[in-house]
Amino acid sequence: MSRRTAVIGGGMAGTAAAKRLVAAGHEVVVFEAADGLGGRARSWHRPEIEPDVGINLMYVSFYPRMSALIREYGLEGDLVKISSNVHISKRGRVVGLSSDSPLDLLRYPHASFRDRVAFLFATLREVRRREELDLFDPLKTEHLDDGATAAEYGARITSAAGFDYLLRPQIEGFWNFASEGVSAVHARALLAWLGGSDFFVLRNGMEVLSERNAEGAKVRLGHEVTGLREAGGGISVGFRGGDGNEGAEEFDSAVVATPAPIAARITGGLDEAVVPAAARAFLETQEYEPALSMSYLVDPGALPKSAHIVAGGADDPPLRNMITYERTLIGEDGGRSEKLLVFCYPGRANTRRLLGQGSERQFAEVTPLLKTLWPDFPEDPRPFQAAERPYGFPIPAPGRYRASARVIREQRGPVVFCGDYFNSPTTEAALLSGYRAADALAGGPTT
Ligand SMILES: Cc1cc2nc3c(=O)[nH]c(=O)nc-3n(C[C@H](O)[C@H](O)[C@H](O)COP(=O)(O)OP(=O)(O)OC[C@H]3O[C@@H](n4cnc5c(N)ncnc54)[C@H](O)[C@@H]3O)c2cc1C
Which segments constitute the Amine oxidase domain (predicted)? Predict the structure, then answer.
């Protein structure tokens, strides 16, 4: 018998769940509030640049499920390799640090020799425990989540100052959350996996994976789900359509794949028999670091190509990081010129302060900060695009892996949850979580 299942949220997690459920014979309807699939992995696109893609998420060679999808959909030819080097800034002095090169590490001037050697040995120790230190799977890491923070772990394996310029920038430069508020497991998993990994982007944006994953499901874009309730032995999904009209539709089951605070809100009216107290408490306590990305077009040569430049140090900096991508700018007369598209992310306090303020004010405040991270940043960068993600990065707080593992184990229909907040703020973790939610409903393999 075919079961009708609603998937609420068409990001990486929701569309992964949709794919599995369609394969298991469910009739699936995806409700997505935005006008396209992909969620936080969805790029913006502008016709003046080639490729026209803006925010372009990185896929790393140690993402097994994403690698399998790229092969399945024949997208290998769309992969563009980018540099895995990180440039770390200390009071305006920027130094490259390759995660692949022990020699680079031994020459690195921002940490003492003793810290560098200690860091190298700690990395080797964690690499030996790779299988346990899975960045994406709390069922593997929960037993290591003993309440210690990444900052405590860092100060144990090196000195606190060593941590500030060796590991902290690699955590905060990618996710912007404070290492003092993050589980040590997150830091250890990064150490275990970063070395020797290759980084790529998908030429036309990562949302192609969500779009392909949703094939076989009905997709309702521009449909914001307002609430779920129990109805006639099933689940009624209430929504507001793009035209502003409200409606409701009945299903046998539902996968809720929105960020956790939204999931808590729209399932708030469901009984404890449907959403157990532990799951509800888990959803209600997840916190997020918002993200504000400001991009500029500058002439090539002004900064290194395909580079990740991050602020070192324990303080929350005015500007956290910059990422550079090569683009061709197409002028109004059709003329073409090579440019660098530079993405900049303010630090935590500035991001929170500038969110919702409008791009004019955001550029006015961020542009004077560019030289704090790259002292030779060009004088007249062309502001290009601002993008906000209020639910940017779910924070893997100490104990979070243990709590999420419990919810994963206890999840069963008719309503299940998924999203990167179960594991780590990565598309790979979102995929795993979506597959698991689908398996909890359909009784498939749990991977
Ligand atoms: C700035 C930034 C850069 C990142 N860079 C990388 C990177 O390089 N590599 C990487 O692996 N990861 C990266 N990530 C993390 C990655 O984007 C996320 O981990 C992943 O996309 C989360 O997927 P998700 O499906 O769990 O959630 P989401 O992508 O948030 O999907 C949830 C979906 O639910 C929809 N929704 C919300 N409310 C409703 C509602 N009421 N009704 C219907 N639909 C609703 C949303 O519109 C959204 O489409 C980055 C994140 C950010 C913010």
Answer: 12-441
- Cα–ligand 1 centroid distance for 158 (angstroms): 34
For ligand 1, whether the C-beta of 252 sits within 6 Å is: no
110-142 residue pLDDT tens: 999 999 999 999 999 999 999 999 999 999 999
Ligand 1 atom with the shortest distance to the CA of 434 = 25
Check: CB of residue 191 under 8 Å from CB of residue 185. Answer: no
pLDDT at 1: 53
262 close to ligand 1 (CB < 6 Angstrom): yes
Q: Ligand 1 pocket: which of 135, 174, 427, 435 to mutate (most atoms <8 Å of CB)?
A: 427
376: CA distance to ligand 1 center in Å?
33
Distance of alpha carbon 210 from the chain centroid: 14
Atom of ligand 1 nearest to the CA of 14: 25
Task: Compute mean pLDDT per 10 residues along the chain, 447 residues long, and list them.
Answer: 90 98 97 98 95 89 97 96 90 86 86 94 95 96 97 95 95 96 97 90 95 98 97 94 92 98 98 96 98 96 90 96 94 94 97 98 98 93 96 98 97 96 96 97 71
Spatial strand order in the sheet of 246-251: 224-231, 234-240, 246-251
CATH fold for the domain made of 4-42+206-287+396-442: FAD/NAD(P)-binding domain (3.50.50)
CB of 189 within 6 A of ligand 1: the answer is: no
11 Cα to the center of ligand 1, angstroms: 6
Residue spans per domain, the chain: 4-42+206-287+396-442, 49-81+291-394, 96-192
C-alpha–C-alpha distance, residues 175 and 330, integer Å: 32
The closest-lying atom of ligand 1 relative to the alpha carbon of residue 16 is 25
Cα of 38 from ligand 1 centre, angstroms: 7
DSSP 8-state symbol, 223: -
Helix 184-194 with 150-157: angle, nearest 10 deg: 60
Note the pLDDT tens digit of each residue in 19-69.
Answer: 999 999 999 999 999 999 999 999 999 999 999 998 788 999 999 999 999
Give the model's pLDDT for residue 182. 98
Burial class, 78, CB count within 10 angstroms (exposed 0-12 / middle 13-18 / buried 19+): middle
Distance 201 CA to ligand 1 centre (A): 16
